[in-house]
Every structure is written in C-alpha cells, then in structure tokens.
Amino acid sequence: MAKAVLQGIAVSTGIAVGKCFFLNRGPGSVRHVTVAADKVESEAIRLVEAVEAVAASFAGARELLDDSAGGIQVEVLDSHLLICRDPKLSGEALKRVREQRMSAEWALEETVSSIAETFSRIVSPYIRERMEDVRLVADRIIRHLSGDASAQSTGNERGILLAHDLSPGDAIGLNPERIFSFATEQGGKTSHTGILARSLRIPALVGVTGLCDSLRGGELLIVDALKGRLLVEPDEAELAEYLQVQEQYAAYDMRIRKLAARPAETLDGQRIAVLANVESAAEAGTVLKSGGEGVGLVRTEFGYITRATLPDEEELYNEYRAMAEALAPGKVTFRTLDVGAEKVFSGRVVPDEANPALGLRAIRYCIRHQDIFRTQLRAVLRASAHGNVSLMFPLISGVGELRLAKSILNEAKQELAAGRIPFDREMPVGIMVELPSAVLMADDLAREVDFFSIGTNDLIQYSLGVDRGNRHVAHMHQPLHPAIVRAIKQVVDMAHREGISVSVCGEMAADPYCLPILLGMPVDELSLAPQSIPAIKHLIRHSDADKCRQLLSHALGAPTIRSISNMVRQLLYQCFPEDVSFFVSQQSMDA
Ligand code: PEP
Ligand code: MG
Fold first, then answer.
1. Which of 20, 505, 514, 548 is the catalytic position?
2. Is the pLDDT of residue 240 over 70?
3. pTM for this structure?
4. Distance CA 70, CA 269 (A)
5. Domain encompassing residue 183
C-alpha cells in the first residue's frame, strides 16, 4: 500500500512514475515591517524593480516561444504581463508603501487580499481563475523581493515537478524530456496551468490538497492523471500495476493522435463533424493539428475581458479575418460577446446585480450596449468575406429577443452594403440553446435561424438550477440527468424537423461517457477543446450509431442519472474493453 494517496484534478491525462522535487512551495516569506520614513522611497524603488524584473521574465519567456508552442501560452503570458503592470496591483501596492510605510512584500500581500475581497463577491470559475492569476503573479513578485527567486528549478532535475502553483513562465520553461509530469496544490480544471499542461501533453494534476504540507521532495510518486490521484511511495505491486497502465496509455494515446485527421464516421456510416472551441485566433494551428475540422465556437469575449480597453472594429476584424483565413475552407463560428455573470470586462464597471447569472449577460448585455455589439457584428461580417464564417447569439431566451438581435445584425449589414464594404450575404446565423425557454420554443426558433448550438454547460446550469461554478453543488451539474437528455432530444428533433443542423459545444461534447447519447440523437456536430478531439474522433470511429440509438431510446425512458450512466457505462465496456480505463469523465458518474 502507498504511504498516502492525495486527491487532485486530472488536467492532462496519463500516468507518470518517478521521484519528485519542488519548484516552489508557495509565496516567498513576507516581511511585515513598517519602513522608516527616510527609507520609503528606496522601498518603493525595490518594489518597482521587482515588478519590472518579473515582467521582464514573462516577456523573455514569451519571446522564446515559437509558433509550434500554440497560442494559449502566448495569451497566458500576455495576460500575466498585463496583470504584472496593472496599476490595480503594482500601483496600489506602491501607494501602500508610500502612504502606510509598509514593506514592499507586505504592501503587495495586502493589495492582493483587497482585490480578492472584491472578487469573492462574485462566485464563478472564471473570476476565481482570474484571481488565481493575480495571486500567481503577486507570489512571483514576492518571491523575487524575498530573494527566493533562485529557489527555482536549476533545470537539471529530472522527475515529477511539484509546486504550490506554476506560472506560465515556469510551465513554458519545462522540458518534457526531464520533467515528465507535474502536480500543483492550486488550480482548477480550466485554470491557465491546466490549459498549459494539456498543450505540453504531460500528465498533470492540479488542486492537490495537502501537496505542499505532506511531501518533502525526493519521494517516489505515481501521478495517476486518469483517476485524479497521487500515490506517495507506492509498494511493489502498485508500481508494477501502474507501469503497465502507463505503457498501455502511451500506446493508446499515440494510436489516437496518429489517426486524428481521419473523418469521424461511425462503423455503420454515420458522419459527425468534429470542430474545436477556441478563445483566440492564435489557436488555429492547434485546431488543425488536433484533427479539428474547423471551429464550432469562438468564445470572443476572451478578446475583451483580458484587456483594459475595448477593442475597436479594425482590431477585431483583423483577428477574426486571420482566423477565418487560417481555417478556410473549414468553418469558423463566432459567438457574439458573452460577457456578464462570471465573465467581466476588466476595464468596465460591473453592474451591481444580486443574481449575475440571471442578469445582464450575453445577448442581454449586447442589446443594452448596442455600440459594443454593432462594432463586433461589423467585424464578424467583414471577416466573413475571407472564409467560411458563421455567427451565433448566446443565451437566447425567445423569438422576440432573437428577432431584435437579428434586426441589429441586418442594420450592420445595410451599413456595410451602403459603404460598399464586402461581406458574405449568406453568412449562416444561429443561436446557442442554453435556456429551458429556448428548448420549449425550439420549433419556433428553428424557423428563424440556420443552426442551433447547444451550450450544455449553461443549459444544465439553468435547467437543473445548479450554479456551474459552485463547488458545493458541482456533483449535481450532470449532463446525463434525464431532464437534460430529454431536452437535447427535443431540440434535435425540432431542429431536424425544420431542416437545420445541431451542434453541441458544451463540455458534454468532450465527455466519452456522453458520446453514445449524443450519437444516438443524432447531433450533427460536436465542438470541444482541441486537446480532446483525437480521443472523441477515435471513439466515434469505433462506435455503432445503431447501438447508440437503441441506448438513447432506453435512456429517454429512464428516471435517474444513475440508470442512464449505468447504461452508457455498460455500452462503453462492451465496445471499448481495452480503452475504457483511459476515458476521463468530465463529471462524477456516481450521482
Ligand atoms: C455552454 O454554456 O455550454 C457554452 C459552450 O458556453 P460557455 O461555457 O462559454 O458559457
Ligand atoms: Mg454558455
């Protein structure tokens, strides 16, 4: 038996076995001292220099990136650079040094606490993760100030890297030949560290409770990034078992990636399009490499919320055009700005709302702020002249709202036409089905648009009344809830009856345990994170659509999540006896 088993969240699948070492155990030590009046200016300079040194290390890491590194790392480094230089962080800390005579580390620590206090009023994964980024940057500056910056890896260690948290700069410097896995105490499934781990393709766990307290470094570890656990000092039998699993997983992973470019067609000839979800144009290369046939969802708000000022039409047009050109003839589906609730602009005042998830978000925000909406619509329309572009509106609640959004789009089209600015007059326009009201109105809505894209993350949240960012009810956010399965079926049937296509672009699309249900519907398209595409395409190619249809017809009569998940599990074990242990579900299957 292993000495201890720590639980964590698998963010990049696989198994690693080896000795561990620490990169850092958290923020450097903080001196809580009041600075003498005549030393205040030199303390302020110490802070400014530390901020500049850390910013320079981010900038240096960014320069080292070549195109093959993928866009996410560049984006993460840019956002950390932005945080580093944001006056809300360094400026406020500097004020505390000058006005309250705090030591630089202390001032920074206090500033982070007050930012965290503001953030904590909004419970949401996005905000929590942005706060994690702020903390990460501040920790890095504090480590620099307290002289702990050199307590970093010498670059010579081999093995499993452990850290309180990893900055993008740290992660980019990792050499997968020497560092074959990492685990951190901080972080969540969609944190930047998680995203980076997936692009480095080394097994990784984040959010490992007790990591820094229970390990000293030097222990032999098994990182099980399939089941989300870390075994400390495993015994011989565990070691032998895991070495075997590791070998099998490596063979499986190589097999599925090699075939990622092949079309996704079931054994009995049902074709399904597999596209990618992206946050920026820089990810186009990763989409193609992963076997994505295009982009089914561009979360355009990421081009807004990571910056201090609003982008103008020209900037947006250039970015959207680059994406359309890079992926042509593949499709690129731009979702209009989905801000509000958990996604807030850094440079704008957030409305004070008691229930932000039920408030001024997504299409509602755009209808209220039509100047911002029109700028984006014009940019997408102009980009449509350069590729295969589609547009969709998020969080549509009914026909009236959709018609209003479409009328604003039509006005933008008329303006462009009057100015003789080219755009695709036939650009498909769709909606995201994310609200129970849209499910109930699916037939009427289908007559007004060219396609549906089901945003299951929100559809589950709003149908089951489960806040998708609240960890206390996270186990209830279940795509295999009978109500969700029936809702999707109703949307698919109504859309097909009206002759339009249906995509699924929530996390459900990347979940092997949900795939048989979606194939049975059948949905026409799946859109998911690029890293998950090879596995889902592999599964589709080895599935039998007829069996999935039969499974779905039973699932539609089932009263509980457990009964549906048992049916799916049975089918997967029957069809994929060798691979099923490598399927990582996005949610608990035992609810
Ligand atoms: C969804 O709600 O499923 C979706 C894809 O949109 P987002 O996760 O960006 O809200
Ligand atoms: Mg959504």
1. 505
2. yes
3. 0.75
4. 33
5. 4-25+151-242
